[in-house]
Design goal:
- The protein has about 850 residues and is an alpha/beta fold.
- The chain has four domains: about 170 residues, Chitobiase/beta-hexosaminidase domain 2-like (Chitobiase, domain 2, 2-Layer Sandwich); about 300 residues, Alpha-Beta Barrel (TIM Barrel), CATH 3.20.20.520; about 160 residues, Methane Monooxygenase Hydroxylase, Chain G, domain 1 (Up-down Bundle); about 160 residues, Jelly Rolls (Sandwich), CATH 2.60.120.
- The protein is built from 20 helices and 28 strands.
């Protein structure tokens, strides 16, 4: 009986909890009735639901999902009616021109939806007075096409409190007895045509989880992925593909289900013509005899193989096709570069032959089948050297696998196919893999994708998310920005963590949880966990009385403070929110904090053991405890929700020595000293300040001088400390000193001498293809010194210095650009930082008379 009473009390608390509904604008959600409002849920009873019996399968499916969402919120199933009459409050979902009921309302001038005609994935939500006999008021969700209707329904589901992550992160749904929609009409549509994600590097986590719970990466599993994608208002997926996996071949129902739900399928950047890489090695397809993945020597077999992929795409029946965006082009087998010296004409001939196959199999010009050519790694170099691409093909540029976009269009910006971006939240490759935890700042994603949109990349945005989990937060942001980059302003991005926390956990602790997400992302982005070891950061001095933790200790201290603030939030959470909080907030913070402590303890153990100091033994024990704690955290994750996520967090992350992971986590080596009982450990408060070297945070400028249509703006929290500063709008031409666009920092130097200035930049690349970015620095009214950044993510010289510079910059999430000014007097001066090229983002400066020591990338210095 006590358990029943507790459950009733919990439900009562949920029903009476404060609402996060805004009640502002047209067709927005409100907890109270108003003039002309529509009762979506009244006194626990949801409105009835109508969908035409002959509606598209995607519309029928979303109607079922929306009905389930109404039940989740209200506690009762909505009535499903077969005639839109005498139904009381009624929700109607359909597609313009495909729904007799909706088309009838348009003819009768009950609703206006002409602005949807011919649009891509647009929708209107309309509150209609007296649409039918016996129906006083209805909500009509009308899509310009089938996905427009899907997004219109899921948009409303999210607003009434059903998170897109309700299944994929166990986000609970708050009950409400009354939910109303304000009167009026609301239209929305995406500004980027194709938006989606890539499940990649899915072993051992995602693959192990899927095998354990679904018997494999099959249609039963993909049903949850497809629903997540659509609830995030995405429409495009690159499926898990690493051997031995092939989406279309492993389970033929995969492509059938995707198409029936309205998901556009593709294949990754190196898998042409809807064929998974592993299919080639299975020797499937009529007449395929396999052989080398080499078009020059095995072209006939490759053409047969590719034809089979397009034939399968066209096998839907009744002249239909499974909706696909076909990848064309070619890379080497296994996502490797093609052979050295591959001629551009050969790659152009490959695409010509692929398009000939498409036209032959579909019976229509190749231009009528959507296609994408991924200009990934060396393929971009071919494009830069004049490779010709058919005008209707989407050109997909990529980042450098670490979040810096490599290229944007500088010519042919009005080409029919347009341009896109392939971005990374996860990567396998140099300088080292990063696959375990989310290490992505939405501030960086926003800055780079805002740049991409301004630069004309509007046809396709796709992001590599690894196992999907634990990328829930940055993926939510990426998809929201992709839906409408113009609405995702700097202010909207800054508020996103709190807004997302409010939608996920309710209003009570939204601000605190949003702050945790932001601080975690910044600390995690400083250095990815696979790149951390005992030598990553400096320790301080050692005395018999105390140890100075140095920079390493300060960073551990920041993680510990973050943990303490997280525990304060946990103490206030209701039990039903704990599983979601563990996945989205607690585990990432605890696991990353513990990793820092592990290597911090190992660093002190080795330092003290080398001096035969018995305190080394204490740190050996602490390191061992931290290593065990890591396994306990993973085990706790796998036991969540009755073992629902067992297997998902199996990714190796301790013991890296090269770019590829070890097979299992490896305890770092520790040493013990045989000198009796060690004394207790005491730490000093911190390092003494250096009066001749001081730090200036970029947002702490004394003056910002705008010009040439540009305005300096601070991107809060971007980078390692307080934030980054750059000029907006982005993707504008270079400016000169005559334009006067600059930041000014007033400083005082204690001594005369050479003044060294070290600019600490957010890592970025020259997206014009020129290979360098420029920024200017001057002192007082002196001449401007031009500083050039030639960070390039591939060797381009005999010394390979640019590659080493790139490695260091992405490891530290900071690019250092030094400039010196000889013979500066002591006293007051003004350092001026001049905009020359765009996409240069300043995060910090170190200034000193004489030599600047090893740069400091720890907590912000506040003045």
């Amino acid at each position: 009986m006590r358990g029943a009473l507790s459950l009733l009390a919990l439900l009562g608390a949920m029903l009476l909890a404060p609402s996060a509904f805004a009640c502002t604008g047209q067709v927005t959600v409100c907890a109270k009735s108003g003039a002309g409002s529509f009762a979506l849920i009244r006194k626990g009873a949801p409105a009835a639901l109508y969908v035409d019996a002959g509606a598209d399968s995607a519309v029928l499916h979303v109607a079922d999902s929306f009905a389930s969402d109404l039940e989740r919120v209200s506690g009762r199933k909505p009535r499903r009616v077969t005639r839109p009459e005498a139904a009381g409050p009624l929700v109607i979902v359909g597609v313009l021109g495909q729904s007799p009921v909706i088309d009838g309302l348009i003819r009768d001038r009950k609703i206006a939806a002409a602005d949807l005609s011919g649009q891509w994935e647009a929708f209107r939500q309309i509150v209609v007075e007296r649409p039918f006999p016996g129906v006083a008021r209805a909500l009509v969700i009308v899509g310009s096409d089938r996905r427009g209707a899907v997004f219109g329904a899921y948009d409303l589901s999210e607003k009434i409190g059903v998170s897109p992550w309700h299944w994929f992160a166990d986000v609970p749904v708050q009950r409400h007895s009354d939910v109303y929609l304000t009167a009026g009409t609301r239209r929305d549509a995406p500004r980027v045509r194709y938006r989606g994600f890539f499940i990649n590097d899915e072993d051992p986590g995602f693959n192990s989880w899927a095998r354990l719970h679904f018997g494999g990466i099959n249609a039963r599993m993909y049903e949850h992925v497809f629903e997540l994608l659509l609830r995030l208002k995405g429409n495009y997926l690159w499926p898990a593909m690493w051997a031995p996996k092939a989406f279309n071949d492993d389970d033929p129902q995969n492509m059938v289900l995707a198409d029936s739900l309205g998901v556009v399928m593709g294949t990754s950047h190196h898998e042409p013509m809807t064929r998974a890489q592993d299919e080639w090695h299975r020797n499937t397809g009529a007449g395929v005899t396999g052989g080398k993945w080499d078009y020059a020597t095995n072209g006939a077999n490759l053409r047969t193989f590719w034809r089979g992929g397009i034939e399968r795409m066209m096998s839907k029946g009744n002249g239909g096709r499974y909706e696909s965006l076909v990848t064309i082009g070619m890379r080497g087998d296994g996502d490797e570069a093609m052979g050295e010296g591959t001629a551009i004409p050969l790659l152009e001939s490959i695409v010509t032959d692929q398009r000939r196959i498409i036209a032959d199999v579909t019976g229509k010009p190749a231009s009528e089948t959507p296609q994408v050519w991924a200009l990934y790694k060396e393929v971009q170099d071919y494009y830069d050297h004049g490779m010709k691409v058919p005008d209707d093909v989407i050109l997909l540029f990529a980042d450098d696998n670490w979040g810096q976009i490599r290229r944007l269009p500088t010519v042919d910006r009005d080409r029919k196919g347009g341009f896109g971006i392939y971005y990374h939240f996860d990567y396998v490759g140099a300088p080292r893999n990063y696959k375990w935890l989310n290490t992505n700042q939405i501030e960086k994603t926003w800055q780079q994708m805002d740049l991409a949109y301004a630069g004309g990349a509007k046809s396709l945005w796709i992001v590599n998310v690894g196992d999907i989990k634990p990328m829930e937060f940055p993926l939510s942001f990426f998809m929201k920005q992709a839906w409408d980059p113009e609405a995702m302003t700097l202010e909207a991005m800054t508020h996103f963590p709190e807004d997302w926390a409010r939608a996920t956990f309710g209003p009570k602790k939204a601000k605190a949880i949003g702050a945790l997400l932001t601080r975690y992302s910044q600390l995690a982005a400083r250095r990815k966990p696979e790149l951390i070891d005992a030598n990553s950061f400096a320790l301080g001095a050692v005395t018999p009385e105390a140890l100075d933790g140095g920079e390493f200790g300060e960073m551990v201290g920041e993680w510990n403070r973050l943990q303490r603030d997280m525990l304060d939030v946990i103490a206030t959470l209701p039990p039903e929110q704990r599983p979601a909080f563990y996945q989205l907030v607690e585990h990432p913070i605890e696991a990353f904090r513990n990793l820092y402590e592990l290597y911090y303890f190992v660093a002190w153990n080795r330092r003290l053991a080398a001096a035969n100091d018995p305190r080394a033994n204490i740190f050996a024990d602490l390191a061992g405890d931290a290593f065990a704690r890591d396994a306990e955290l993973t085990d706790s994750y796998h036991k969540l929700s009755g073992g629902k996520w067992d297997g998902m967090m199996l990714q190796t992350h301790i013991g890296y020595t090269t770019w590829q992971q070890p097979a299992t986590n490896v305890m770092p080596e520790v040493k013990r000293v045989n000198q009796g009982a060690p004394p207790s450990i005491h730490f000093t408060a911190g390092r003494p300040a250096n009066p001749d070297v001081f730090s200036i945070e970029a947002p702490h400028f004394s003056r910002a001088v705008n010009g040439a249509g540009l305005t300096w703006r601070v991107i809060p929290n971007l980078g390692r400390t307080l934030g980054g500063v750059t000029a907006f709008p982005q993707f504008r031409p270079a400016t000169s000193q005559q334009d006067g666009v600059r930041l000014e920092y007033d400083v005082k130097t204690a001594h005369a001498g050479d003044l060294n200035v070290q600019l600490i930049m957010i890592p970025t690349l020259d997206v014009s293809g020129g290979g360098k970015l420029r920024i200017g620095v001057s002192i007082d009214d002196g001449p401007v010194r031009i500083v050039t950044d030639s960070m390039i993510p591939a060797p381009n010289s005999a010394t390979q210095q640019p590659q080493r510079d790139w490695n260091k910059a992405v490891m530290d999430n900071a690019r250092l650009l030094p400039v010196a000014f000889p013979g500066v007097s002591a006293g007051s001066h003004t350092i001026k930082v001049w905009r020359i090229d765009g996409n240069m983002v300043l995060q910090r400066m170190l200034v000193g008379t004489g030599a600047i020591p090893a740069y400091y990338l720890g907590p912000p210095v506040r003045r």
